[in-house]
Design brief:
Strand content: 15-25%
Shape: globular
Order of helices and strands: EHEEHEHEHHEHEEHEHEHEEH
Strand order of the largest sheet: 8-7-6-9-10-11-12
Largest sheet: 7 strands, parallel
Oligomer: single chain
Helix content: 25-40%
Radius of gyration: 21 Å
Distance between the termini: 27 Å
Length: about 300
Amino acid sequence: MIPVNSVLQVGQFPEVMQAAIDQRISPVRFPDLNANLPSGSFESILIRSNTQLPAQLLEKLPMVKMVATCGVGYDNLPLDYLKANGIKASNTPGVLNDAVCELAIGMLFGLLRRIPQAHEFVKSSAWSKGLFTVTTTLAGKRVGIAGMGRIGQDLAKRLEPFKVNLAYTGPTRKELPYEYFPDIQSLAKASDVLFLACPATPDTEKMINTEVLKALGPQGYLINIARGSVVDEAALLVALQQKWIAGAALDVFENEPSPNREFLNIDNVLLTPHIGSATSETRQLMTNLAIDNLEAFYNKRPLLTEVKN
């Protein structure tokens, strides 16, 4: 059992997640980090992976020894502070793979076949005045995946039936039936479509730079379902404007929820508002796994999906 009012719920949660939370526990809500901190003897924090947890907040909560984040990413947690103060953390990997991969495939076809533009073409009655532009097919393309973790591997399996040639890069080669490239630039050069499915770490920060984009080339497409920090957005904007690459599909951005407005004025980009895991089924699974981790903490059992820092 999780003691009533011992969990501080930080940030805003969608209704479907809040309903799942309220069915199982009774947290104290702290939706606005700029407001006064609620009083209480909090031993744990429940937070979403897209909400930054400041170390300054934790300094005001000396009894907190566990942070459960809803989401696979944990780059918004102050990992050094957690480690230094013996605070455990958990995330929710695995349960969102299907939703993220489904969106990735949808973005791929939306980008290559220009589906949003085709929709507007019909709605605006432009079809009666002429034919829609010819697009490009996926079959026969070389598809690279940067990051071959759970999501990367699930994505690769979904891409196999589309008659593509798959390759990947990551810190180490894995026992997989795909070509391995030791670095992102060489993978980009060998790819027609480059997916980003890697974690946000110091090693991956802004790894998609001018050199990588030029290696991807004028027939290449970039799809980011990872984190905004892995792309140098200034370089990407130039690449899109100058047609160094054919197009990009972005579900994540450096500045969310207010991405660089220059992206709004480009016709070779497809934008979605960080909705990779935004299905009701997935959000419920994420929430329940986060609460399962909280229950394990309070019952002095090993965490189910602990973040190893």
